[in-house]
Amino acid sequence: MIELAVLGLLKEQPLHGYEIKKRLGETLGVLWGVSYGSLYPALRRLERAAAIAVVDPILETGLGASTGSVSGDLAAARRRPKAVRLSSSRRTRKAYEITERGNALLIELLLADDERTDDERSFGLRLAFCRHLPPAGRLDLLSRRQRVLRDRLDRVDRPQAGAGTGNDDRYSRSLREHRARGTQRDLEWIESLIALEQAEEAANTVKTKSTSDLSTTAN
Cys bridge to 15: 6, 19, 46, 151, which one at CB 3.0-4.6 A? Predict the structure, then answer.
């Protein structure tokens, strides 16, 4: 899923490797633990697939620290004397941007319906970047998650095989109840997001119809 995360970040702006790693940690949380050893192979795979491309390289000359962003580093490089910018001791640092093929791949990965639908981290990652989906795509993603949570809640609520025996102690029952409450909260949260999407879609439909009616009247 690291490819999805990288494309989601580059959809917003070009970034170099250090900044991608930093923002991955901020977006996904420290538990993801994305290392350079996994990031750079993913960048090479995406570059070979023409999903991302290298933009103007960042030149490091030892005259100052990176600003942390591609645009800031490029602006700082332009302010340096030409002789310094052309110094043979410079190091080039790649910056990446998403391509049209990358945009299509991002949508494909966000909407992928596979065995990872039930995975918490996979869904959390998709939700973090679902703003890049069209309204129908966002609603589809949320509806699939709704079905997953409903199925999970149904399984938790079913009578357990050990019910009524010594295998069904208060700790086992407490754990099932805790899971059920957590799943129910998640389900209510997803359903609230679905309701917001549906309300926005209805409002946009009314607005479009009103605009069409005004245009017809004017003609």
Answer: 19
pLDDT score recorded for residue 125: 87
CA atoms of 108 and 87, how far apart (whole Å): 43
Give the 3-state secondary structure of residue 158.
coil
pLDDT tens-digit series, residues 14-70: 999 889 988 887 776 654 667 888 889 999 999 999 999 998 665 544 444 445 555
Cβ neighbors of 50 (< 8 A, separation 6 or more) are 99, 101, 102
Half-sphere exposure of 105 (CA within 13 A, CB side): 22
- Return the residue matching tokens 């949320």: 142
Cα(167)–Cα(135) distance, integer angstroms: 47
CA angle 150, 153, 155 (to 5 degrees): 110
pLDDT digits (tens, 9 = 90+) for 119-150: 788 888 899 999 999 999 999 999 999 999 99
Helices H / strands E in the chain, number of each: 9, 5
> Hey, what amino acid is at 199?
A
